[in-house]
Structure formats: structure tokens, C-alpha cells
Amino acid sequence: MRTNIIRKERMSVSYDMVNGWTVVEIDGDVDAHTSPLVREAVIRLVDEGHRHFVLDLSFVSFLDSMGLGVIVAVTKRIREREGALRIAAASARIVRVFDISGLREAYEIHPSPEEATRQAPSLGRLAHWPRPAS
């Protein structure tokens, strides 16, 4: 059952539990105005005990450097709790932002949340973050 965390005019954040993953669906722009809301929502879930996340960016229409900064910040918090993080991004435009920023190799990026949650989480997935495992 999907639970709404944030519902604003320009964006919404909700989550659902799938195969041991907390799938956080973001709908709308992730920019300087909305990034703090996304950070707050994910950090709240981490503080409540959620450890393994899929950030579903399939409905994100725009992602800027502030949005990437929030993803890095929540990654650090998830790593502190020995959790795992995957990105689901159906849009080539969003994946390109990860490519341009040099973060593409630091994250597991899947084409859909279904693909990202197909396998249950395992420990140590962020052990080498922000550098990819060799």
C-alpha cells in the first residue's frame, strides 16, 4: 500500500514496501525548491528504521545539481545504517544527468522499480560508495 509523505503543488513523494525494499516514488521536479523536501522525507524513513531503498525517479520531470546533492546526502545516511540504495529511472534524460555528473558508476540504475526490486536487498551494497567496486 503506497503511503504519501509529501504532497505539494509541484511534487509528491510517497513510498511502498516491495520485496524488502522501501520504494520512494518522487513525482515532479527535483530542484533547489523541492530537494529539501525529498531529503527530509527519505531521512525520516531512514530514522524510522528503513534501510534498503529504491529511489523511483520515473516520474521526475527535471533533476538539477541540488537534486543530485540530495541523492548523495541520503546515500551517506543510508550507508551509515548499512543499507542499500538503487535508482529506478525510466527516462534517458534523468540517466543522462547521472552520466554528466560522473555519478553513473556510483549507483545501480535500473529502468524501472520492478527491475530494481526483483532481487531482495543484500548487505554491503554501498560498501564501496561513492566509488564503484572493481
Automatic annotation (TrEMBL):
Region Disordered, annotated ranges: 113-134
Ranges of residues in domain STAS: 11-120
Coiled coil: none
Superkingdom, taxonomy of origin: Bacteria
CDD domains recorded: STAS_anti-anti-sigma_factors (cd07043)
Pfam families referenced in this protein's UniProt entry, alphabetically: STAS
SUPFAM superfamilies reported for this sequence: SpoIIaa-like
Family: Belongs to the anti-sigma-factor antagonist family.
NCBIfam families recorded: ant_ant_sig
Protein name stated in the entry: Anti-sigma factor antagonist
